[in-house]
Amino acid sequence: MASLLVGIGLHLIMVCGGIRATAQPSDPGNRPIITRLTPAGTLTWSNLAPYSACRVEWAGAPNGPWTNTAPQLRDILTGDNTTLSATVPVTNQMRFYRVGMTPPFAVDWCRLQDPQSSYVTVSNAFNIYGRVQIAGVTDRTDGVDPQALVKAEVGYKSPIVGTWFGGGTWTNAVPNPGWSAAAAGEPNKDEYVGTINLPAPGDYYVAVRFSGDGGNSWLWGDLRLGGGGNDGSNDGFDAMTTARVTALNPELKVLAAFSDTPTQVSVYFNQGVSPALVRSDGSQFTFTNGLLAYSAVVNGSSVVLTTTLQTHSQNYTVAVGGTVRDYLDHGVSAAANTATFTGQ
User: Fold this and answer.
1) Fewer CB in a 10 Å sphere around the end CB: N or C, the chain?
2) Cβ-count burial of 155 within 10 angstroms (0-12 exposed, 13-18 middle, 19+ buried)?
3) Residue 75: pLDDT band by 50, 70, 90 thresholds?
4) Could you give the CA distance from residue 310 to residue 292 in angstroms, rounded to a whole number?
5) What order of strands is seen across the sheet that includes strand 126-133?
6) Alpha carbon distance 197, 251 (integer Å)
7) What is the rounded CA–CA span in Å between residue 291 and residue 312?
């Protein structure tokens, strides 16, 4: 079947088996140009506006009326591709096709909603929630109003490595299916949720970011601190006001013990110990060679024990009871619950 490409004014018209495809964008200064239409219905066009979206429409006459009954052809993300294509319906009733550009949206505001701060087990997935406001998008319904050009991502980074801008590890977020702006008391806003895994034990910052142009530019969101303008992106983005999340090992382990004084011993763990789960009388810590503990104070990832008088140069072994736990209720490993030290 022969085809002929003809230029008419500022538009390109392709004649292919009696079917015509013409570019008739709503924005004459930023027009996609249709370059090919196959008999099977593959429509190809040039992309003149990276990181936007296209909409394909068809009609039975050059002047319309134009329609689109296929959701997948309403907002086609262009990314940075130079050409795009899609399969369109081809019938005797739909003989003319056009491609228009969807203009990008301005992200007015966003916020990291949750977590505020937390502990997680390393490599265990957890959710991060962010809220966003975009005029003409998030104010359409009470639920989330997805739009092809609107992208949401959640991310994390180490407090001591790199910066958020151009850095961090990011993953896609999706509309929260349970979101109700009215129930949350946040009119004209939408909520997205993404899942991340922290790769190693340690402290991390987490944040959210939103784009209204398919990912070409981003607005970062931190926490709401107090009232006034300190709400998410309203006062800019500050790495120090993002959420801090601590990733813990799945087991609490004793690393070492040292005699600080003849009546004091410090026991060191691989991660923070929950003060609420350490008895102040020291009864969860037992010693060999007759040594006794009678008080215990948590100091981050160590516990300081007051003991009876130690014998100089005597070796002691301290055993930690299973009821000593970390902030996620991880108990002490049975394979790493003791340490040996020398008395002063």
Assistant:
1) N
2) buried
3) confident
4) 9
5) 109-114, 126-133, 190-196, 174-175
6) 17
7) 12
Looking at 102, 132, 160, the residue that finishes a domain is 102
- Look-up: residue for tokens 């992106």? 233
Stated as kind and residue range, the H or E segment containing 183 is helix 181-184
Tokens of 307: 């003991």
Specify the CATH number for the domain of residue 335.
Answer: 2.60.40.1220
C-alpha to C-alpha distance for 172 and 170, rounded to whole angstroms: 7
Looking at the structure, do residues 269 and 166 belong to the same domain, yes or no? no
Structural domain of 172: 109-248
Round to whole Å and give the CA distance between 56 and 54.
Answer: 7
Indicate the range of 66-80, 131-145, 291-305 predicted with least confidence.
Answer: 66-80
Q: What is the pLDDT of residues 148-184, one digit of tens each?
A: 889 999 999 987 666 777 678 999 999 999 999 999 9
Same domain, 118 and 231: yes
- Distance between CA atoms of residues 335 and 344, nearest Å: 27
Closest to 53 measured CA to CA, from 36, 30, 70: 30
Domain edge (last residue) among 248, 270, 305: 248
Together in a domain, 140 and 235: yes
Q: How many domains does the chain have?
A: 3
In this structure, the chain runs to a length of 344
